[in-house]
Design brief:
With about 110 residues, this protein is α+β, with helices and mostly antiparallel strands. It has one domain: Glutaredoxin, CATH 3.40.30. About 55% of the residues lie in helices and about 15% in strands.
């Protein structure tokens, strides 16, 4: 097996590092904006106990001080009914100031809270 030239590996490594740094920078800006503009009651997250994306969203919002409430469709009949009324398309489903956001879409959330 022939290995790629070292220069190609360096270019790929630098590209991956730059991409990670950019995503981290954007995420930091998102966190600051959301923590400043979101008030308690603005975000409700409808979750599932087995949803990895729900866990990631919960951890990120908690760590960044973004206020939100959460319910689980498996545990709460009222939560399940609300989820179904919103179309039940997947979790997490966020309700941000009355607007449905499917998935943890920070850009969409920011657009709503601006």
């Amino acid at each position: 097996m022939k290995w790629p030239p070292l220069s190609l590996l360096v270019v790929v490594g630098v590209t991956l590092l730059a991409s990670w740094a950019w995503r981290s920078h954007v995420a930091d800006g998102d966190a600051e904006l959301l923590s400043q503009r979101v008030k308690p009651g603005d975000i409700r997250m409808i979750s599932s106990e087995t949803c990895g994306w729900c866990t990631a969203a919960r951890r990120w919002m908690t760590a960044e001080g973004v206020p939100f409430s959460e319910c689980f469709i498996e545990r709460d009949a009222q939560c399940l009914a609300g989820y179904q009324a919103l179309g039940g398309a997947g979790t997490p489903t966020l309700v941000v100031r009355g607007q449905r956001v499917l998935g943890f879409d920070r850009a969409r959330i920011i657009d709503i809270v601006k």
